[in-house]
Design a protein that fits this description.
single chain; mainly beta; seven-stranded mixed sheet; four-stranded antiparallel sheet; 11 strands; about 0% helix; globular
Length: about 120
């Protein structure tokens, strides 16, 4: 069955970096756009980034643009999120999700599968 497993989260100081991974199984990611979505405590989900099937086109939320980079390794069936210059407001549970449909070309996107999430905590 389809599974998405995130890893790489942790506790980091403000200004630090983390690299999240999302390992997919049960399907090949080269047929799908893939997104990262985060949810901070007490807040709703926030779209972070999306990468196209070939990895040539990426989109980012304004809140992370210039600091985060999403990439994919189709041979490893894995998607990544490199997060630099982290801020306390980046603290959240980070999910990867398979894009089912882009509404009007996206964002927003509709998702059909989600991972369990990996916690990122940025201390000030």
């Amino acid at each position: 069955q389809v599974q998405l497993v995130e890893s790489g989260g942790g506790l980091v100081q403000s200004g630090g970096s983390l690299r999240l991974s999302c390992a997919a199984s049960g399907f090949t990611i080269n047929s799908y756009y893939m997104s990262w979505v985060r949810q901070a405590p007490g807040k709703g989900p926030e779209w972070v980034s999306t990468i196209d099937t070939g990895g040539h086109s990426t989109r980012y939320a304004d809140s992370v643009k210039g600091r985060f980079t999403t990439s994919r390794d189709n041979a490893k069936n894995t998607v990544y999120l490199q997060m630099n210059s982290l801020k306390p407001e980046d603290t959240a549970l980070y999910y990867c999700a398979r894009v089912e449909r882009a509404i009007g070309g996206g964002p927003p996107y509709e998702y059909d599968y989600w991972g369990q999430g990996t916690q990122v905590t940025v201390s000030s």
